[in-house]
Here is the input.
Amino acid sequence: MNQDVIARLAAANPVPSGRPPAAVEPPRVRRALVAVAAVIAVAAPAAAFAGDIGNLLGISNGGTTVPRSDVLAGQTDLDQALQEMRVGDTMQLLGTVNGVRIYAARNADGHICLAIDHVAETYEKGVLCDLNDPGFPSATDEALSFPGQLQGIAADGVATVALVDADGNVLDSAPVEDNLFASGTHVGMGAAAYLEALDANGNVLSKQKLPG
Here is the structure.
């Protein structure tokens, strides 16, 4: 995705009063397009085949197939962003956790893309596409989250995810339920240095460097 697309999305998204969009900086570590109503951010895997959706996404939660146009109904610019990220006509509704409805799909290039909808809030909606190699899910990427807040999906075997600063301090953590997680805490863009995925014993399965 180029900066023209990001700039257009930033201009088009509705922004609540008193909550200006954050500035966009080029990614230095993870690559992806994130478009949310109050923030546009650049953050961040194999060809898609018909069959078992759970295997297609690489996680046990296969979800329910829904039309892409119904995912963020009424959010024209975000739906357009999904199209520009080469997401097809359907996505998988994986479930709702802490009031956040989470969708996922592999796009035409084989990358996993997410869409989120805070069902009780007007502006908290967004899309993201993982462009890392090998990307989620893999030994180095056991979780995929929107930047600044723990909202996303985790690989099988992940019990907890956490945002950690450069000194190792945990800024926020959230349990994983059926491969999904969503925290109500806004850590903020750039505050966390790493996204950690931990097993049920607290062992770190992966530690992803986040853009500063």
